[in-house]
Amino acid sequence: MVSPNPPPPTPHYLPPPDITAPESPSELRTIAGILADKAWLIILCVVISLMVAAYHLKNSPRLYQAVATVQVEQEEKKAVKVDPIVREDLRSSESLNTIVQKFKSRALLERVVETNRLAQNPAFVPQDGSVTRDEVVARLGNLTRAELRRGTRLIDIFAVHTDPKLAADIANALAEQYMAYDMQTVSATTKGAYSYLRDETERLKKKLEESERNLQKYREEAGIVSLQQSQDVLAPQLRELTAKVAQARSDTARLQRQYQRLLAQASNVSDLLLLPQIAAMPEVQGLRTALSKSEQDFKILSLRYKDKHPKYIDAAVQIEAMKRDLHLAATNALGRLLESIKVDIEDAKINQEGLEKELKQLEADALRVSQHAIQYSLLSRELEADRALFDSVLNRLKETSLAAEQQPEKLRFIQPAVPPTQPFLPRVQRTYSFALLIGLAVGLALAFGSNAMDTSFKSVEQAEAYLQLPVFTAIPKLKEVRLGDTRFVAIEGSDSRGAEAFRTLRTSVLMLEREEERKVFLFTSAFPGEGKTFSSINFAISLAQQGLRVLLIDADLRKPSVENYITGQTSKLSGLTDVLAGNRSFHEVIQTVEKVKNLHWMAGGKPAPNPAELLATPAFRQVIKHAVDNYDRVVLDTAPIHAVSDTLLICNLAETAILVVNSTKTPRKPVARSIQLIRNAGGNPSGVVLNLVPIRRGGGYYYDSFYYYHSGYYDQKKARESSEASTSDVAAGKQSKEETTASPAK
What we know:
The chain is α/β, with parallel strands linked by helices. It has 25 helices and twelve strands. The strands form two sheets. An eight-stranded mixed sheet has the order 5-12-11-6-10-7-9-8, with helices on both faces. Strands 2-3-1-4 form a four-stranded antiparallel sheet. β8 (about 590) and β9 (about 600) form a beta hairpin. α15 crosses α16 (about 530-545). The longest helix has about 100 residues, at about 310-405. It is elongated. The two termini are about 30 Å apart.
C-alpha cells in the first residue's frame, strides 16, 4: 500500500546514452529492413525512370549508321621513286590521327555537301529555305565522324541519318572526297613548288656566272698564275730558315753563358785549374807537374827535418813561389780564353742578325702570298657553293617536274558503306537497362538518405542500446484499430498481434520484481500523439484478464482522453478533477467497462484551470492510496513529458514508469531526455513500449527482433514461474507475423 506521503525513491542516474553504440547486431538485417520499408519508393523511382525511357524511345527518331572503312598506306605508292615536296611519315601515330581529324575539316565537308547536293536534298534539310549553307555543313559534321581502329591502320568513317541509303552515300562520299581533296592539295603544292624552283634556278644560274667572272678578274689583277705552287715553295724555305735562326740564337746564348761563368770563377785558382780549357794549356801543365814534385820532396824532407831547419824553410818558400807562378799562369790563360770566347760571341751575333733579316724578308713574301690566298679562297669557295646550290636546285626541279605528273595514293577503300538494315539509335535494351539502373540508384539513394535523416528508433535492439532500458513490447500497426473496428485490442483472440503485444507487455512488467511490490503503473510519452492512452487502456485490460481488479485513472488533466476512448464522449463524466476539488468522493467517480470484467476506470473530470496544482496536492496522493487499498493494480495515464510538467510531479508515486514511444516519428534524444527528467524527478523509468512498429511480410525486422532481445533483461527464474503465460504469448506472436496491421497514435 502507498502511504499518504511516501518518501520519494532514490533517483537513478545512468550515464548518458552511447549514441555511437551499434544500432544493430547485423548490418545485413538493417539494410534488408530499410529496403523492405522503402521498397515502394524504390519501385516508384524505377517505374518513373522506365516510363521516362519509354517516352524517350517513343518520341526519338530511328537513326541508321553506315560505316565505310579505308586503309592508310605505310608510304605513298609511286611509279618512280622520287622524294615528294610534302613528305609525311604515314607510319607514325601522329600522322594517322591527323588524317582522322582531317575528316572533320570544313573544306572536306563543304565538298561533300556540294558533290552530293545535300543542301537541295529534302531528306537531309527542310526545303523551306530556313537553313543556311553553314548550318548544312555543321549538321553534316554532327552526323559524321571518323575513328582509327586501335592497333591497325584502318579508319572507320561513320555517317548517321534517318535514311539508311543516304547515310551510306554520305560515308562513301566522305572517303572519296578526302582522297580527291588530298590529291588536289598535293598537286597544287607540287605545282607551286615547281614554279618556285624554276625561278630559283634562273637566279642561281646568273649568280654562278657572276662568281666565275669575279674569280678570273682577281687572278688577272693579282698576277697569280699558280698560288698553290708559290705556297709549296715558300713553306719549306720558311721552316728551314726559322730553324737556322733558332740555332744561331741558341749558340749566342750558350757562348754568353760560358763567358759569364768564366768571369765568375776568375778569383778562385782552384776552380780555374779544374776547367778543361785552363788545365790543357802547356805552361799550366808544366807548373802543376813541378809543383807536385816539389810537394812530394817536401813531404820526405819534413820527415827528416824540423820546421826550423834551413832546408825545411827553403823547400817551403820554393813551394809557395811555385804556387804563385801557377796562379799567375792560370790567370793569364783565363784572360786569353775570355778574349777567344768574346770573339766567338761577336761572330754568333753577326750570323744571327743576318739570318733574322733573311727570315723577315721570307715572312713578308709568305704574308703577301697568304693575303692573296685568302681572297682567292673566298672567291673560290663562293664559286663552289653557287655551283653546288645550282646543281641541287636543278636536280630538285627535275624531280618536282616528275612528281607533279604522279598522283600519290595514301588511302584505299577496304569496305565501302552499305545501307544498314537495323537502326543504330535508339537502343531499346540499353536505354531500358540504363533507366532501370538510374531508377534503382535514385530509389536506393532516397531510401538510405531518408533512413539516415530519420532519427527515430528503427528496431527494438537499437532502442535498448541507446536508452539502456528494456523494451517491454513492440506494438505493431494494427489495421483493425486504424479502421475503427475496435480499440480494445487486448480482449481479442490469441491470433491477434495487438493482443499478443499487450500480453507480452504484461508478462514483461510483472517479471521485473515481485508482484506485491508493483502496484502502480504510470504511462507517459515524450510528445503528444504517441499512443500512451491506447497503451495504458489495453495494458489495464490485459491485467484484468488475469483476474486482477484493475483501476485505470486518467491523470492527463490537460487533455483527458480515456473517457473519449472508452465511451466516445468528452468531459461528460465526473472524474479525478472533481475528487481533487472535493466535489465528488472517490467511489462516486469510478466507472466500469461492460466488455471487460474486473476493469474499472476514472475519467479526467471537468476541465480544471490549474491541473499542475491539483496533482501536486496531498489529495492526489490520497486518491492513489485509496486506489491501492481497493484494487490489485492501478494504471495511470499521464501527460506528455515535454508538453507539460504534470507527469514529473506525480511520477514518484508509481513503482513502474513506462514510456510510450512512436517508433516511426519520435527522435531519440527527446526520448532519452524524458527518461532523465523522470529520474531527476524521483521516478523509476522501468522500460519502453515501442508503438506503431512497422511489420514486413515474411517477418519484420522491427517486430521480430523484440523477442530475441527482450529475454536478456529479465531473470530466468521468474521467466520459468510465468512459463505458461510466456509460452502462450510467444505462440500467439508467431502467428501474428503473417498479418499486416497498424496502430493509431493518440
